[in-house]
TrEMBL record:
Name recorded for this polypeptide: Radical SAM core domain-containing protein
InterPro entries: BchE-like, rSAM, rSAM_horseshoe, rSAM_sf
Species whose genome carries this gene: marine metagenome
Keywords: Iron, Iron-sulfur, Metal-binding, S-adenosyl-L-methionine
Name of a matching Pfam family: Radical_SAM
C-alpha cells in the first residue's frame, strides 16, 4: 500500500460519488455534486476524487462501483467515501455498502442527499454500514468532516452510535464557491444547464420539502457577484437553455437584476422560471417579455378548503389578474395542479 505524505502529515483523501438519473441533455456533472466538489476543492485539505456514474447506465451496478472504490483505496490510507443517496439509487447503494464492508473496506462512509435529509429517524437501521449521515445542504458539513475527522459536533451531521437529533445543516450561501466559475462544471458546448440563484422557501406548504432544508438558512440567495458572473459565463459559452431550480424565482430580491443581466448580455436562449403568480408585478413581466421565458406556476389548487388543508393559500383574484396580463402580453406559462389533496372530491 502506498500512503501519500505531505511532510510528516498523512494526506487524507475523499471519494465523492454521485449516482444521477442521467438524461442526454444534462451536463455530465450534476449541479449538486459539482457544488460539493467545488467546496471540497476550495476548502478541503487533501485529495478529492469525483465519481459520477448514472444509475440508468448499464455499466453502473454495485459490483462495478465496489471494484472502483477498492482499487482507489488500495493506494490511500486515510480515506472517506461520501455518497449522495437518492430514491432511484437506493437498492444499488445498499448493496454497495454491504459489498464494501464484506470486502474489508475500512474507510469512513458518509451519506447525504434526499434519502438522508428527509428520513426523520432510523438511519442506522436503514444503512448499518455507514458512519455519518448529513441532513440538508452538505457543502460546509462535508468540508468540516473531511478536514477534521475527529470532529463529532457538526450541526446536521448524525454520527452512528450517537443520539439522532434530526437536525438540518447550517450553511452560509454567500461563501460557497461557484461550481461554474471554479470549473467543476464546464458550460462550454453544453446547450442545456440547471442553475440556482437561491435555496429554500419562506412558505410552509405541507407537501413541499423545500421548507425543511431552508429553515437553517440565514440568507436564501447566493452571492450577487457570483450570480452575475455566472450569467456572463453562460452567455459567453453559448448556453441555449437554462432551467432555474429556485423554488420561487421571483421571491428573491435579485430577480429583476438577474433578468436585466440576461437582457444586457443579449441572451437569446430559453429560461424556465418557477414563480409565484401573486409576486409578478408589471415591471417583472415587462422585463421577462424581453427574453424567451417559460413561467412555471405551482398553483396546486384553486379551492380554499384544499388550500387551507395543505397550508397553501392562493389569492385567486390576483392570480387571475396576472394571468390575464400574461395572456395579453403573449407570455408563455404553465400551471400545475396536485390531484389527491385533502378535501378533494
Amino acid at each position: 500500500m502506498r500512503l501519500d505524505m505531505l511532510g510528516d502529515k498523512l494526506v487524507r483523501s475523499i471519494i465523492l460519488i454521485e449516482l444521477p438519473w442521467g438524461r442526454d441533455k444534462d451536463p455530465r456533472v450534476p449541479l449538486g455534486h459539482a457544488s460539493l466538489l467545488a467546496s471540497l476543492q476550495k476548502f478541503g485539505e487533501g485529495e478529492v476524487i469525483s465519481i459520477v456514474a448514472p444509475i440508468n447506465d448499464s455499466s453502473t451496478n454495485p459490483h462495478s462501483l465496489k471494484s472502483r472504490i477498492l482499487k482507489l483505496s488500495e493506494v490511500r490510507g486515510d480515506l472517506d467515501l461520501a455518497i449522495g443517496a437518492y430514491v432511484w439509487a437506493e437498492d444499488v447503494i445498499k448493496e454497495l455498502l454491504v459489498l464494501l464492508r464484506a470486502s474489508g473496506f475500512t474507510g469512513r462512509i458518509i451519506l447525504g442527499g434526499p434519502q438522508i435529509s428527509y428520513t426523520p429517524c432510523g438511519l442506522e437501521e436503514l444503512y448499518p454500514e455507514a458512519d455519518v449521515f448529513v441532513r440538508g445542504y452538505g457543502e460546509m458539513a462535508i468540508v468540516g468532516l473531511f478536514n477534521d475527522p475527529g470532529m463529532t459536533n457538526i450541526e446536521g451531521a448524525h454520527f452512528a452510535g450517537q443520539t439522532d437529533l434530526n437536525l438540518q445543516t447550517s450553511v452560509d450561501l454567500s461563501v460557497l464557491p461557484s461550481p461554474w466559475l471554479s470549473g467543476a462544471i464546464d458550460p462550454r458546448g453544453q446547450r442545456f444547464i440547471r442553475w440556482e440563484t437561491q435555496r429554500g422557501c419562506s412558505f410552509r406548504c405541507s407537501f413541499c420539502q423545500h421548507k425543511e432544508a431552508g429553515m437553517r438558512l440565514v440568507r436564501r440567495e447566493l452571492d450577487e457577484a457570483r450570480i452575475m458572473a455566472e450569467i456572463d459565463l453562460f452567455c459567453r459559452s453559448g448556453v441555449e437553455e437554462i432551467a432555474v431550480l429556485d423554488p420561487i424565482f421571483n421571491m428573491g430580491p435579485l430577480a429583476k437584476s438577474i433578468l436585466q443581466r440576461f437582457i444586457d448580455n443579449g441572451f437569446t436562449g430559453k429560461l424556465a422560471l418557477q414563480c409565484r403568480a401573486e409576486m409578478c408585478d408589471d415591471e417583472f413581466l415587462e422585463m421577462a417579455s424581453n427574453l424567451d421565458v417559460k413561467f412555471e406556476f405551482g398553483l396546486q389548487t384553486i379551492h380554499p378548503e384544499e388550500s387551507k388543508a395543505v397550508n397553501r393559500p392562493n389569492n385567486m383574484p390576483k392570480v387571475n389578474e396576472v394571468f390575464d396580463k400574461m395572456n395579453s402580453m403573449g407570455l408563455d406559462y404553465e400551471v400545475s395542479i396536485i390531484f389527491g389533496l385533502p378535501n378533494q372530491t
